[in-house]
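Before we proceed, please read the two lines closing this message. Tell me what the token row says about the fold.
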Amino acid sequence: MTDAGVYIHIPFCRSRCSYCDFATGLYQSELAERYVQAISKEIVAAAGMAGVRQADTVYFGGGTPSMLSPDQVERILSAVQRSFVIDPTAEVTMEMNPGSVTLETLREFRGLGINRASFGAQTFDDRELARLGRSHTSADTLRTFDSLRASGFANVSCDLIAGLPGQTMSGWQHNVDQTMSLRPEHLSFYLLEVHQGTPLAEHIKRGLQPVPDEDLAGEMYEWMLARAEASGYEHYEISNLCRPGFASRHNTKYWTGAPYFGFGCSAHSYDGKDHRWSNERDVAQYVDLMENGKSPVVENRRLNNQEARAEALFLGMRLMRGVDTREYRAAYGIDLRDAYEADLSRFQEAGLVEFDGDLIKLTRAGALLSNEVFAAFV
């Protein structure tokens, strides 16, 4: 049986980033305490509903989970340990923003068993950080990284965003070079997506910020991959690189169809077979539901065979190693080469997909245009 992953959503932030479309809000101490009690209650209730499960990853995402106190994090972890049998070698990740933690707090988090940190540098240009509504500076990023090392974190992931409004190639190269000099174990990089309803979308609409240059963002993507790979990083997923042995064990569950259980507002879960469900998105409503003994689940969905096949294909192809056609045929009774012959031939001719024995995988160009490729399989 595949061990599950546990996801804990912490929605609180010091400030709201202009591009953010996640279920987050500004930190309020009273609401945060009620939220910790609510999410702990939800986690403990999960054990009674489905029995004990094995888990080997725990991921605190958000938001900025590091805004919780070590005591609050300890209480949530205690609830997790009551509902799941946690592998002694589990990967336990906490997302954090530069400048949001102290050396003392990091040592306390490390003492609780948090052994992987994921922090959002995003850019080392202070002007870009200010335009994005980030609450930290590039100096904060460097200090936080030093504190992570000093507190015993030997597995650190760093986030960067390419294609910011007005961003230049030289500025992006500086960001990447600065990150490479830190030698984090893992690197996540994203091409900026402008979501309707966010402050950034409104700024662009009103001409307060320039429209992002998608072609330039693609060039930034290509340059970064070459630079990182030359520095010993492996490009293992469309938006992720790592030093050997440091791929994100938790996130890999999403791409390989492993079960994962999400807790907190907007959290999603999957049983590893055909059942997906998700929680109430609004923080206050989620807390009210839990305090009144009601289920926070607002969507339940059973995948039919066609949906399960499609998900397995486009999620699996996010991994640069590709999808094994023999394993896929054994699981779903479908020969991928026959079922998608026309599309695969077209993508192969365009240099977006390649065949490697029994594997079908994206090329580097295909990774950049992955949404266009995946659309054929949905």
About this structure: The chain has two domains: 4-255, 305-377. The mean pLDDT is 89. The radius of gyration is 21 Å.
